[in-house]
């Protein structure tokens, strides 16, 4: 297994007189044995990044290094990176066992050794009982596992998964997430997992890298991204339900610095107010997570009144959609409360849970 490092990598696709700058100045390190997820909306450059690591696409500039050695000019076979796609592409005339063992057979690994390695991985993926079956007799989840086993059997330098859970839903998706996590723990492999679904990334990774329009916006643990998102985009992308945002002005009201939208004024911490006072800007975007809008007071909370619009039950919690004047926003509440549309409600927040972003650059200020 290997450390994978991208250094100032760019990818520009040329075609029909048009250029697409798909990946911009990307610096990313995935340490040996680390599980990193690359997340971002469709079209942000995730697959392009993976294809450059695997060698299916050439970087326009920058360096791709495995354990410090530049691999830009190596073809995919020489890089020995395994990639699993959403489509499993199994050989229909081979049994699951033959499918999994095929990469070893192609390399001339003796039958005994092949058998041992196939059974080891099949054990990990809990597919030993279906090894004799052909792909057309397998369920989607079983095929996905056979395909994972086939990708892993080469003991690749790194293992790369591009939206592999795209067509898998519900219970099976949960099971596959669990399998991937367990595989990573038992194989100690370097894994790079791409998804547009932040929940998958959070469930699996040591670290999450957020791409937006071809750029790396932030990489960090789930808690780092959740607690200190570098930009409004990250605050919006990480966390469920999404963060509430308000366009505000920083104003002095009764001697206190307040962040005022038309129909609501939120109080930042004294430290944040001091920081904002020292800046020329007066316009900001405030973010507050639904988890941080509380229905009961706690130490140090500040309250404001709103009206309930919609109440959705989510098992042990509820999502409340609320309004105040022309503003609409969401709060998470316990499921026990009795919430009815058009009823008044008092909400509580802690000033330290207010995130302030620059209105232009959208970077986090405080
Ligand atoms: N072979 C290609 N030729 C031209 N443009 C491409 C090609 N592949 C991807 N793109 C463009 O590059 C950008 C990033 O695509 P991609 O890496 O597939 O994003 P993602 O996997 O995050 O959805 C998109 O604008 C896409 O249309
Ligand atoms: Mg993609």
**How many helical stretches?**
10
**Alpha-carbon distance between the termini?**
39 Å
Q: Can you tell me the number of structural domains?
A: 2
CATH class of the largest domain: Alpha Beta
Hetero ligands: adenosine-5'-diphosphate, magnesium ion
Mean pLDDT: 92
One letter per element, helices H and strands E, the order comes to: EEEHEEHEHHHEHEHEEHHEEEHEEEEEE
Output the CATH homologous superfamily of the largest domain.
Answer: P-loop containing nucleotide triphosphate hydrolases
Proportion in helices: 25-40%
Main sheet strand line-up: 6-7-8-3-9-10
Structural class estimated from helices and strands = alpha+beta
Strand-residue proportion: 25-35%
Strand segment tally: 19
**Major beta sheet, specifics?**
6 strands, mixed
> Outline, from the CA principal axes?
globular
CATH architecture of the largest domain: 3-Layer(aba) Sandwich
Low-confidence parts, pLDDT < 50 over ≥5 residues?
A: none
**Oligomer designation:** single chain
Short description:
The protein has 366 residues and is of the alpha+beta class. Helices cover 27% and strands 35% of the residues. It folds into two domains: 4-230, Rossmann fold (3-Layer(aba) Sandwich); 244-358, Beta Barrel (OB fold (Dihydrolipoamide Acetyltransferase, E2P)).
SSE arrangement:
Blueprint: E1 4-15, E2 18-30, E3 35-39, H1 46-54, E4 61-66, E5 69-70, H2 76-79, E6 81-84, H3 96-106, H4 111-125, H5 140-152, E7 158-162, H6 170-187, E8 191-195, H7 198-204, E9 207-212, E10 215-220, H8 222-227, H9 232-237, E11 244-253, E12 256-261, E13 264-266, H10 270-277, E14 283-288, E15 302-314, E16 317-324, E17 327-334, E18 344-349, E19 355-358
Helix pairs in contact: 3-4, 3-5, 4-5
Bound molecules: adenosine-5'-diphosphate (ADP) and magnesium ion.
């Amino acid at each position: 297994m290997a450390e994978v490092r991208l250094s100032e990598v760019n990818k520009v696709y040329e075609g029909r007189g048009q250029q697409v700058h798909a990946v911009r100045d990307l610096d990313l390190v995935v340490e040996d044995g680390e599980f990193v997820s690359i997340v971002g909306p469709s079209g942000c450059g995730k697959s392009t990044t993976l294809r450059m690591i695997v060698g299916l696409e050439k970087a326009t500039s920058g360096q791709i290094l495995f354990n410090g050695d530049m691999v830009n000019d190596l073809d995919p076979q020489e890089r020995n990176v395994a990639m699993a796609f959403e489509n499993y592409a199994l050989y229909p005339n081979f049994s699951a066992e033959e499918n999994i063992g095929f990469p070893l057979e192609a390399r001339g690994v003796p039958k005994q050794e092949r058998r041992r390695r196939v059974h080891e991985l099949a054990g990990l993926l809990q597919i030993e009982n279906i090894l004799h079956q052909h792909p057309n007799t397998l369920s989607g989840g079983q095929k996905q596992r056979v395909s994972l086993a086939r990708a892993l059997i080469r003991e690749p330098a790194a293992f790369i998964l591009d939206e592999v859970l795209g067509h898998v839903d519900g219970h099976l998706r949960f099971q596959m997430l669990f399998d991937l996590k367990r595989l990573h723990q038992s194989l100690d492999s370097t894994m790079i997992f791409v998804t547009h679904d932040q929940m998958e990334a959070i469930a699996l990774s040591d670290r999450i890298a957020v791409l937006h329009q071809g750029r790396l916006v932030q990489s960090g643990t789930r808690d780092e991204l959740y607690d200190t998102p570098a930009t409004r985009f990250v605050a919006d992308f990480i966390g469920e339900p999404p963060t509430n945002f308000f366009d505000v002005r920083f104003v002095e009201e009764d001697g206190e610095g307040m962040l005022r939208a038309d129909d609501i004024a939120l109080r930042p911490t004294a430290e944040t107010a001091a920081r904002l006072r020292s800046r020329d800007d007066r316009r900001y975007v405030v973010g507050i997570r639904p988890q941080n809008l509380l229905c009961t007071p706690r130490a140090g909370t500040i309250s404001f009144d709103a009206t309930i619009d919609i109440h959705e039950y989510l098992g042990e919690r509820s999502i409340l959609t609320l309004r105040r004047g022309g503003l609409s926003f969401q709060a998470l509440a316990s499921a026990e409360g009795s919430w009815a549309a058009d009823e008044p409600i008092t909400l509580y927040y802690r000033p330290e849970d207010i995130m302030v972003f620059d209105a232009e650059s959208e970077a986090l200020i405080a």
